[in-house]
Write a structure and sequence with these properties.
Chain lengths: 223, 358, 193, 494, 209, 178
């Protein structure tokens, strides 16, 4: 499938974007995007896990039998998630407090597993690592975008609390776009997650169409 | 002589029915209640009504332009105006102008045109807008006023009204709670239903509309009249309204009998909130309700029951809008299971056993 | 009795797994093009969630908690779930090939259906008893199935509608789901679990 | 007498008053008649005459072939000018083989089959023979060879013959006029049919918007206890045989079965009249009553027209057209065929020629379905037109088939009522056509498979035979080699 | 060994479990101490907001007693002591908000006045009910210094219910829940004042993991 | 101690689980794939070779293996393609599938020299004739495989569209204009 790292990067970030094109990893996409900061944090944590587990699966793929492959992949993802969880708790505690709840849920995010099945189990270590990184970054991009839109429309801010996630140096990112009283609450409530994601997929399509590409109709599972 | 050939098959005669006529009839049925209520709530209500209806028509036109369709047959069918009209009738009459505009965006763009326009939408556009506004702006959407009829003393004049609708400030001293809101707040403060209901206008006044509420909420009797007109005109049938109001009444009565201090009675329930408007004008929306009569009975039953449940147990004071949307979501499934029995077949689709000789 | 009822109502309607807790969304978007498929997926998932929640409850109560192995929770849970799922998959493949063909690649993906792990984690967080947690898991998956079926019905109608091309497919699915979530917000406040 | 409700149905504007008071008048013999060889359901008739030949009135000019077919006769005496392709009175505008007859004005009768002296005691087969020879087909619209239906009593125990005098289509008054002017002939024909069918009872159902016809028929039937005349409510499509039987008897014909399976055979009143003529006088079906109506016709009338008369002649007889009509229709406005031009001949099934103006057709540009449910409520077959149409629009023919599109009568009620003017019936006609095409393709496919297998078997057998022959040759040396001559059925190659 | 035997699959999975189990165990061993320390800091930080530093010289996080209350697990009370005398206590209280339970940490001085309140956890609507967080506004600070007599108990309500505390515009349920929780907390303090301020010697030191 | 317990318990879970799964995989394995047989039944069976495979059986094999698309069989047309796609559980877009309308082969009487070559090609025995005599094709049997065309030395055989008759005509799909 992929030839060269440029292709992998393009696929992960845009063409085959996990959220906007493949419609995978929907749960954190909806649940963790009440603000741009949350989306960014969740995305980055997922990217780390995806890269590590992609590399590991590619390394061990010779030993994994068909019958037990899913449990093994999951075991690997779960182990990576736990390692990230423990490490962050111990050494990046402020960040952990923001993301803490979300991290265990990376385990059951479909995206890492889908990539392990379709990429890392067939490709060598380095491309698998790259695929993990770029798919993860693409995921981050999408989540941040969704979070940004929801946050702006819903609360009137952008990147609120970014300094908690990224450190005080990043407090310049925290912007108030409009007064809170104009916030459309629905956008940060559950319906907003679906609506904004839907519109962002349309946005991606418009860009693709402007770029002369055909509209992508299905998600990862459309046969 | 050549005559247009083989483009459309028979029949070559048609009933006089048209979409435009249907929508116009519904609007006509709403006129008395609307006029009376606009009088009751004065200029701010008039402004908001105009803004909402105008914005809905404008959004419809905008969507048609964007999608490159012709404006006329579609814009002229009256469905967008009707949506706007119904939406305006469920807003707090003195709500600021932007609720009408944003409501039009929710109703026409999000609720209708994204799905492909008239007939394609899954959810009732007016109720989508109403609920989206309620969820998004709980403050603005729950600020009610008592009736202040036009030209009475104490009623805001034209200029004051401009300030209310376009300045967004309801002056102190006007606000009042709706009947349902009062009971709900009462309950959450530990008052019993009878204590709260004691503070309410009596049922007669509720029927006439002399109380706080939206345009479509207050004068239940005029709404009823409009509804009966629609039934008479065969625009709607009795199934949805009867099933909905009946279920709501029965559920409320049973609850009231079981625990009068916790649940209001049946008459109160069907006369308050948007029950009548919902039963005759909203739950009956063709597009989003089942097509068969059995389906409509089930639909009405569902709306009635959910309305009572949401009003009695859930956080929001208003149940009809949510109940309608919830049942809208079940409509395709209801449709699938309530198809009529085909001629010569059993309900399950097998051919009938021959009867007759022997 | 009443508390179980409230627990169930809460799990099915108020804090619906899909629409309020955002769990299991990939299958929600993927396996809902037809009502019967959605029903099949709902059944399979209900089975997996209920069984694996019981097993996970046991694992928590008799292994992780007594020995202070809390950090292994995620790993152990997911292994139990993976086992339960793959066992179900093989059974379905054998017993009902048509169902297997319909559910296609989703059966293995039940493993990564967040709803399964999510419900298990919620049980532990809520410190529920065995009965409570079983009731909760079952009710949650009923809520899951309910919304799956409703959504599938809506999508069958969408398939017949003239959706503008830019919105056809996933976007209109998301928007419909958003409106469905909006409708379900009507239940908020019924019980506060 | 008790009547039973039928599901759905509509009440269109009937506009029968345009022609109902006009007595049946005979059309002056036109210059040319064009008699189609295929005026009925079933196999086309086989030509018996050639150009240049003279034929006599009532002479058979084409013979039915196969079990379901009907002959054609010369409506008058004259010369066969040619046998040529002419535009058929059919929506497709395709052409069909016709015998072009130039009348000689002599009206000279050919020898006719001997009529039955007392048909009511005759052998049923004798009646059926006469009906078959007379080329009678159902005059209620479907043009199904009547003799086939008269066989229904041989396998089944029938309880009644139902005579269909509903004439529920708007505008049409030909059956009404026949019943008013010739009630005796209709009732006699009905009794003959009942006898042939072995049905003890005749029920004549007439919509109660035809009081004169009811009165005349009731009066005439009084003499015969086994004949009942019953008014039925005005409700389109009361004339559909399954619905008429249901209204009269309360019995519902099971899907994929005939009304005969529940004891009733239905015939049209004009068919009864034609059978009366055939059996009592040996006369073939060579003319029929046609209602020419519509507001675009100057003077609507009921015309007794020879089969094969050009539609133009009928229109001219009515004083011509008023302006350009929006629609020209053969049959009723609900189920009729649009005519490609006025230059088509009258056939046995032509009950009406309508020229309708735009106001009458009420056609408008279709809009989207607003799911008003009207079509569901009125479909007399309990179908869901809106859903079927949506499936067909999205090319999901299987979906429409599952919902029963093939059971749709094409009665047009749904299209008539649809406020969005969706051409529902056309969707269904299209789907039915496509499904039939698919079925034909599938059958062909099966046939190809069988043929291929036969071919392969044959080759194998031939190869085996050759090998055997070679072996035999090896044993009986010296025999001269058989002349190898490939025959068509048996190519020598393996 | 036969790649298709059950044992082989078992061993493969087992091997991976072994390997990753080891990895996790090691990670846990390495991080456990730090995590515990972080947890302690967290607890201290949250207590610091409701118990001013000035009034104690002990570590309230570890200086706790367990009161048996109607709830099954008992209520952990953190004690602030100066020179061995209890100067203040802190414990968790909760109220019903719009979307569920709101958990608060309430600090009460020995004199029965509120030392401070902080929201620990809640699910209120962002933009409406979340103004009870100190991050979103100082509303929660207004209780500091107040006690049951000041204002009188019947005024410990939101204004809408006839009390003296402001609700937020558009959200009454959340503040009602919070005010109610604090009121109940103070009533509890009154009722159990003896036990709280003169704790019995066998103090139960809560193990912090 | 705890470390041992952790690693140990996890390993045991893993071994047991893997064992169960391995066993289940073997016990529950679905033996033969009935797909190929089903697919072959759906193909015309005329072994015409237009698909590029040696015959229908090979075409079915390729379909089952996923090497061929559902549209592989030209003579089968849209109907076969749909049936194959349904059996394979894939969705195909046939909207721009240009289908040659139904056709049949016909022999030009003037040109036919009666060489009998075409006759041998036809797998449905649709061609009749004898040596040196004019041959005819039975239109009802011909399934338009076209194999007879290239072998004809005088190019007497051409494909003709099967004409629409009153019996096969049907209403066109209404134009959707809104
Ligand atoms: C599209 C649009 C949306 C608005 N939404 C809100 C809103 O959600 N809440 C609100 O109070 N005002 C809203 N406004 C109105 C302005 O923000 C208005 O200035 C404000 O209500 C003034 O009230 P304040 O002075 O109390 O903030 C909106 C205006 C527009 C044009
Ligand atoms: C919708 C519909 C309406 C019909 N209306 C009439 C009618 O009014 N009169 C009539 O004789 N036949 C009518 N028919 C045809 C009858 O079903 C039936 O074919 C006919 O009465 C049989 O008699 P025949 O064979 O003598 O024509 C109608 C059929 C359909 C499907
Ligand atoms: C989407 C939504 C979220 C809400 N969230 C809260 C909340 O977090 N806290 C709260 O007290 N009320 C909340 N409410 C409740 C309403 O604002 C309710 O009308 C109000 O609390 C009742 O107060 P009132 O007596 O001022 O009308 C919410 C309402 C809506 C529609
Ligand atoms: C009886 C009747 C009731 C209607 N009710 C509504 C309604 O509640 N909300 C709405 O937006 N449109 C309503 N409409 C208008 C129209 O059906 C609606 O705009 C469509 O849902 C848009 O596709 C109604 C129309 C009719 C005929
Ligand atoms: S045309 Fe067919 S679908 Fe329409 S009403 Fe008549 S029978 Fe029903
Ligand atoms: S009558 Fe027309 S608009 Fe009404 S439901 Fe049927 S198809 Fe739709
Ligand atoms: S093209 Fe079709 S008919 Fe010909 S051999 Fe291939 S599969 Fe068989
Ligand atoms: S195209 Fe030729 S070879 Fe093929 S079936 Fe027709 S006649 Fe036979
Ligand atoms: S991320 Fe939750 S199911 Fe896919």
């Amino acid at each position: 499938m992929a030839t060269g790292y440029g292709r992998i990067a393009r696929d992960g970030l845009w063409d085959n974007n996990g959220v906007l094109a493949m419609l995978l990893g929907m749960c954190p996409t909806m649940a963790m995007t009440t603000s741009a900061t949350n989306g960014l944090g969740m995305g980055l944590a997922t990217a780390v896990v995806m890269a590590a587990s992609g590399g590991l699966v590619a390394t061990f793929r010779g030993y994994i039998t068909q019958e037990v492959r899913i449990p093994v992949y999951i075991l690997i993802v779960a182990a990576m998630v736990t390692v990230v969880d423990l490490t962050m708790n111990a050494y990046m505690h402020d960040l952990y407090k923001v993301l803490g709840l979300f991290i265990p849920l990376i385990v059951s995010n479909c995206l890492p597993l889908a990539r392990l099945e379709s990429f890392a189990s067939k490709e060598p270590v380095l491309p698998s690592l790259a695929d993990g990184v770029f798919m993860g970054l693409g995921f981050t991009l999408a989540l941040t975008a969704i979070g940004a839109v929801r946050e702006i429309l819903g609360a009137g801010t952008l990147f609120a609390d970014a300094s908690l996630l990224l450190g005080p140096a990043f407090s310049f990112m925290e912007v108030r776009v409009m007064p809170e009283s104009m916030g459309t609450l629905m956008m940060i409530l559950p319906p907003g997650g679906f609506l904004v994601t839907g519109f962002l997929v349309v946005g991606k399509r418009m860009i693709d169409v402007a770029g002369g590409k055909a509209i992508q109709m299905g998600g990862a599972h459309a046969v | 002589m050549m005559i247009e050939t083989a483009t459309t098959s028979a029949p070559y005669t048609h009933s006089a029915a048209s979409v435009q006529k249907t929508m116009t009839t519904v609007i006509l049925a709403l006129v008395p209640a609307t006029a009376f209520n606009l009088y009751l709530f004065g200029w701010p209500a008039v402004f908001l009504f105009a803004v909402t209806v105008g914005a809905c028509a404008a959004m419809e036109g905008l969507a048609l332009l964007i999608s490159g369709r012709r404006l006329m047959p579609t814009l002229g069918d009256g469905s967008a105006v009707l949506t706007g009209w119904l939406l305006a009738m469920t807003l707090p009459p003195w709500a600021p102008w932007w609720t009408g505009v944003l409501g039009a965006v929710f109703a026409i763009l999000l609720g209708k045109q994204i799905f492909g326009g008239l007939g394609q939408n899954l959810f009732n556009p007016a109720m989508v807008a109403r609920v989206a506004l309620l969820v998004s702006f709980p403050v603005a959407m729950t600020s009610w006023v008592a009736p202040h009829p036009l030209f009475w003393t104490g009623t805001p004049g034209f200029l004051d009204a401009l300030a209310i609708t376009f300045g967004g400030q309801i002056p102190d001293g006007y606000s009042a709670a709706t009947a349902l809101g009062l009971v709900k707040t009462g309950l959450s403060m530990g008052q019993t239903v009878s204590q709260s209901v004691g503070q309410l206008p009596d049922l007669m006044d509720m029927g006439l509309g002399l109380r706080a509420g939206s345009l479509g909420e207050t004068s239940a009797l005029l709404i009823l009249g409009g509804g009966l007109f629609l039934i008479w005109k065969k625009v709607i049938t009795w199934h949805v309204p009867a099933a909905m109001l009946g279920t709501l009444f029965v559920a409320a009565t049973l609850g009231h009998l079981a625990n009068p201090e916790r649940f209001t009675d049946g008459a109160f329930q069907i006369l308050s909130g948007a029950a009548f408007l919902g039963a005759f004008f909203i739950a009956t929306d063709y597009v989003t309700s089942p097509v068969s009569k059995t389906g409509q009975l089930i639909f009405g039953f569902g709306v009635g029951l959910l309305t009572w449940i949401i009003r009695s147990f859930a956080g929001y004071p208003e149940g009809v809008a949510f109940a309608v949307l919830l049942m809208n979501s079940l409509t395709p499934i209801i449709d699938q299971y309530t198809r009529p029995r085909r001629f010569g077949r059993t309900r399950r689709g097998e051919p009938l056993a021959p009867q007759g000789d022997k | 009795m009443q508390e179980y009822l409230l627990l169930m109502v809460g799990a099915i309607l108020v804090n619906n797994v899909i629409l309020a807790r955002f769990l299991g969304l990939c299958s929600f978007m993927g396996v809902t093009t037809r009502v019967d498929t959605a029903m099949g997926m709902g059944l399979a998932t209900t089975f997996v969630i209920t069984v694996s929640s019981m097993l996970n409850w046991a694992a928590q109560a008799y292994l992780l908690e007594p020995f202070g192995l809390g950090y292994l929770r995620t790993v152990v849970f997911i292994l139990v779930i993976a086992g339960a799922v793959q066992f179900t998959e093989m059974t379905v493949r054998k017993v009902s090939p048509p169902l297997f063909q319909m559910l296609g690649i989703y059966l293995p993906l039940i493993t990564t259906n967040c709803a399964v792990l999510g419900v298990a984690l919620l049980l532990i967080e809520g410190r529920m008893s065995f009965i409570e947690s079983t009731v909760f898991a079952f009710a949650s998956s009923i809520g899951y199935s309910l919304v799956m079926v409703i959504f599938a019905g809506l999508r069958e109608r969408l398939a017949l509608a003239e959706i503008p091309r830019l919105f056809a497919g996933p976007p209109i699915g998301f928007i419909t789901a958003g409106l469905l979530a909006l409708a379900f917000m009507g239940f908020s406040g019924i019980s506060t679990v | 007498m008790k009547l039973f409700a039928i599901r759905g149905g509509i009440h269109p504007e009937y506009r029968k008053e345009l022609a109902s008071d006009k007595a049946i008048t005979a059309l002056p013999m036109p210059q040319r008649l064009r008699i189609l060889l295929h005026q009925h359901i079933g196999a086309p008739a086989r030509l018996l005459v050639a150009a240049g030949e003279r034929v006599l009135k009532g002479q058979m000019i084409a013979q039915g072939q196969g079990p379901v077919s009907a002959p054609a006769h010369a409506p008058t005496s004259g010369y066969i000018e040619s046998v040529s392709e002419v535009t058929a009175p059919h929506a497709s505008g395709l052409s069909q083989t016709a015998v072009v007859l130039v009348p000689d004005g002599k009206e000279e009768w050919a020898p006719l089959p001997t009529p039955l002296a007392d048909p009511l005691t005759a052998e049923p087969q004798a009646i059926r023979d006469l009906v078959a020879q007379a080329g009678i087909v159902g005059m209620g619209g479907a043009a199904f060879p009547s003799v086939v239906k008269l066989h229904l009593g041989t396998q089944r125990k029938l309880e009644m013959l139902v005579l269909n005098g509903a004439e529920c289509e708007p505008y049409l008054t030909c059956d009404d006029r026949v019943m008013r002017e010739h009630p005796d002939e209709v009732i006699d024909g009905a009794r003959i049919m009942a006898h042939a069918l072995g049905a003890p009872l005749v029920i004549i159902g007439i919509e109660d918007n035809k009081p004169e016809a009811l009165e005349a028929m009731t009066r005439e039937a009084a003499a015969f206890p086994e004949v009942q005349v019953r008014p039925v409510p005005v409700q389109y499509p009361m004339g559909s045989e399954r619905h008429l039987v249901q209204a009269l008897t309360g019995r519902e014909t099971p899907a994929a079965k005939l009304t005969a399976d529940i004891g009733a055979v239905v015939h049209n009143v004009a068919t009864a009249q034609a059978i009366h003529h055939a059996v009592r006088f040996g006369r073939p079906l060579i003319e029929r009553v046609v209602t020419v109506s519509g507001r675009a016709v100057r003077e609507p009338r009921n015309i007794l027209a020879p089969i094969g008369a050009p539609v133009t002649a009928l229109i001219d007889f009515c004083g011509g057209l008023v302006g350009v009509p929006a629609r020209l229709v053969q049959g009723g406005p609900m189920m009729g065929q649009p005519l490609p031009s006025l230059d088509v001949p009258v056939i046995k099934g032509t009950s009406g020629i309508l020229a309708l103006n735009a106001e009458e057709t009420g056609e408008a540009e279709p809009g989207p379905c607003i799911r008003c449910g009207t079509c569901v409520a009125i479909c007399p077959c309990g179908l869901v037109p809106l859903e079927m149409a949506a499936f067909i629009r999205t090319d999901n023919l299987d979906g429409a088939n599952n919902l029963g599109v093939t059971e749709c009568l094409s009665c047009g009620s749904c299209s008539w009522a649809c406020p969005s003017h969706i051409p529902l019936v056309q969707y269904f006609n299209y789907a039915k056509g496509m499904l039939k095409t698919k079925e034909r393709d599938r059958a062909k496919h099966e046939r190809t498979k069988t043929l291929t297998e036969a071919h392969r078997d044959r080759l194998e057998r031939a190869a085996a035979a050759k090998a055997a022959a070679a072996a035999a040759k090896a044993t009986t040396k010296g025999t001269p080699p058989a002349a190898r001559q490939p025959r068509a059925e048996e190519p020598a190659e393996a | 060994m036969n790649k298709n035997s059950s044992l082989y699959h078992g061993l493969v999975l087992g091997a991976f479990c072994l390997g990753f189990g080891l990895l996790l165990a090691v990670t846990d061993a390495l991080t456990a101490k730090d995590i515990a320390a972080r947890a302690m800091e967290d607890r201290q930080n949250s207590l610091a907001a409701v118990i001013p530093d000035a009034i104690h010289d002990n570590n309230p996080v570890v200086d706790t007693i367990l009161l048996d209350v109607a709830k099954d697990e008992g209520l952990t009370v953190y004690l602030a002591k100066k020179d061995g005398l209890v100067t203040g206590v802190a414990y968790e209280v909760s109220g019903i908000g719009y979307a569920g339970r709101i958990k608060l940490m309430l600090g009460v001085g020995a004199d029965g006045r509120v030392l401070g309140v902080r929201a620990l956890a809640h699910k209120e609507t962002p933009g409406l009910g979340d103004k009870i967080e100190i991050k979103k506004g100082d509303w929660i600070e207004r209780f500091t210094g107040l006690g049951l007599g000041n204002p009188p108990i019947e005024k410990w309500k939101v204004k809408k219910d006839g009390g003296q505390f402001d609700q937020f515009s558009g959200a009454t349920i959340t503040p009602r829940g919070v005010v109610g929780a604090i009121r109940e907390g103070l009533v509890f303090f009154d009722a159990r004042k003896q036990e709280l301020t003169q704790p019995q010697p066998p103090q139960k030191v809560n193990e912090v993991r | 101690m705890f470390l041992l317990l952790a690693v140990g318990s996890l390993t045991i879970i893993g071994v047991v689980l893997g064992g169960i799964l391995g066993t289940a995989a073997r016990l529950l394995a679905v033996k033969v794939d009935p797909l190929e047989a089903d697919l072959q039944a759906l193909l015309p069976g005329s072994q015409c070779g237009q698909c590029g495979y040696v015959g229908c059986a090979q075409a079915a094999k390729a379909l089952a293996a996923g090497d061929a698309a559902a549209t592989v069989c030209p003579p089968g047309g849209k109907a076969t393609a749909e049936a194959l796609a349904k059996r394979l559980g894939v969705s195909i877009d046939l909207s721009d599938h240009v289908e040659r309308g139904p056709e049949y082969a016909a022999i030009d009487e003037e040109l036919c020299i009666g060489c009998t070559r075409c006759l041998k090609e036809c797998s449905v025995d649709g061609i009749f004739g004898a040596t040196k005599q004019m041959h005819t094709i039975l239109a009802e049997s011909c399934h338009a495989c076209g194999k007879c065309i290239p072998v004809c030395p005088t190019e007497a055989i051409t494909m003709r569209p099967i004409p629409v008759t009153l019996g096969t005509w049907h209403w066109p799909k209404p134009a959707t204009a809104h």
